[in-house]
Amino acid sequence: MANWTLLDNEFENTWYEKLWSFADDNLSFNPYNKNQDFIITPSSPYKSFDMSSFFGDNYSQDLYDDLEICMTEWFKIISKSKRMYALNWQHVTYSFDPYLPFERDKFNEWLAPAFPNGDLLCFLNDDFTDGVFGDG
What is the average per-residue pLDDT within 41-51? Predict the structure, then answer.
C-alpha cells in the first residue's frame, strides 16, 4: 500500500491550500528574504537545531538513518488522526501516515526527505498544532 499521497485532486487541493495558507499566515513564511536567518518564524514554543555541518563533506549515512528514525517516532507522537502533511517548498505536497512504511525515491530518501538539502520542509499534523520544520 502506498503511504505518501500526492495532494492533487479537488479534495486534496483544499488541504494543500489550507496547509500553505497556514504556513504563510502563522509561520511568517518568507522564502525570498535574504536578510533574515530563517525563512520561517514558528510561534512559541519551539526548538532549533543546526545540522548544516553534517551535510556535504561531513555527511554520515548513520546520522541520516537516525534522523529518519527519530522523525518517524516524533510524527507518531504528534499525529492525532494518523495523517500528517509534508510540505516541500517549490515541490509537491503529500499526506502520509507515520505508522506505515515510507516509500523512497531513486536516492533512497523519503518522497519529502528528512534532511532539507536546500529546501524548506514542513511536516505538520492535521490540525496544524505540531510539526517539524527543516530549513536547508
Answer: 65
